[in-house]
Amino acid sequence: xxxxxxxxxxxxxxxxxxxxxxxxxxxxxxxxxxxxxxxxxxxxxxxxxxxxxxxxxxxxxxxxxxxxxxxxxxxxxxxxxxxxxxxxxxxxxxxxxxxxxxxxxxxxxxxxxxxxxxxxxxxxxxxxxxxxxxxxxxxxxxxxxxxxxxxxxxxxxxxxxxxxxxxxxxxxxxxxxxxxxxxxxxxxxxxxxxxxxxxxxxxxxxxxxxxxxxxxxxxxxxxxxxxxxxxxxxxxxxxxxxxxxxxxxxxxxxxxxxxxxxxxxxxxxxxxxxxxxxxxxxxxxxxxxxxxxxxxxxxxxxxxxxxxxxxxxxxxxxxxxxxxxxxxxxxxxxxxxxxxxxxxxxxxxxxxxxxxxxxxxxxxxxxxxxxxxxxxxxxxxxxxxxxxxxxxxxxxxxxxxxxxxxxxxxxxxxxxxxxxxxxxxxxxxxxxxxx
Length: 435
What we know:
By secondary structure, the chain is of the alpha/beta class. The protein folds into 2 domains: 46-360, Radical SAM ThiC family, central domain (TIM Barrel, Alpha-Beta Barrel); 401-435, no CATH class. Helix content is 50%, strand content 9%. It contains 19 helices and 10 strands. Helix 6 crosses helix 7. The longest helix is centred in the last third of the chain and has 22 residues, at 339-360. The radius of gyration is 23 Å and the shape is globular.
């Protein structure tokens, strides 16, 4: 039996090789996963032309996945450095790489990613159109916007963030509602500016069916971009955000009608007490489609530490319904991240994802922690390093402050509670100062 997309295959009862691989990794019955994919509640982004992909599943019933944003900018076009970031991200377990390149030979870099990188690859065609056509924004035509989408699909991209929800109607309400930080989405701001200058409808909304046809042909997953995501706590959960979400819910249903997989992008900055409600609203409006969140960042006052503000929000969001966390680095709001920033962002995001998986009862999540606790009880330092989310840092910290006794650490030494409890319960004598 032939099929066009993972969703169509699932609806026809076909267990693709990608689905079987994901089911194996998730410790899930393939039939159960197939039902989730058929309903749109789980997705397997896998462009037919991305031959080296290691498929992963994204959905609330699956383990929480993380995405790593990278790519060139006008101030930094070093492709070798970006590939170093890619390798580092994949080595640390990032499931997806999103190329946000906005300068240089973007096509070369994108094709290199889909030819060599096993992670799921995402892009934002709106950015690339500005680079590719190399002309004034208002001169880009509707056809040219759509042609860029097709070009990315042919290059093997697995998912594309396309800002379809900011149409004339939502834009009119946005202007009326007066936000503190306006539109902070790069893609959203670009297409909003184009609409304002040309007086035309958002081409991705107006010609949405054509976009879906492209996605269906190559099995590209639609990542419905949230142009009106809040860029500060003051704007969180406002009318513009919710109105756009309603539009994205309608677009989700239209994509499913064409067997196109969908995930929906969610808020950027949001107070902790609003996160759970936002996850519930999205799941209701978008009928369980996977939710992809940037953070959310739970405070606006921590530049240089936004990997932490995002991890706090991400853990809460994933606990209450988000499926996919976009990492945030310490460089957020400040500069293009370097390799060390990328690592810090990935680790923070992985901690958030794992904490949420424990809360959700994802198979195998709690067992990892139990193994670590067992190694700690035994004072098995090598075992602890192997189980650590960042083994290199854990090992380095211990080695930079070696203890007098190898079975302890320099924090407690002979006062080590674990060591002393093990000994006293084994019937040994504990004499801390004499040892």
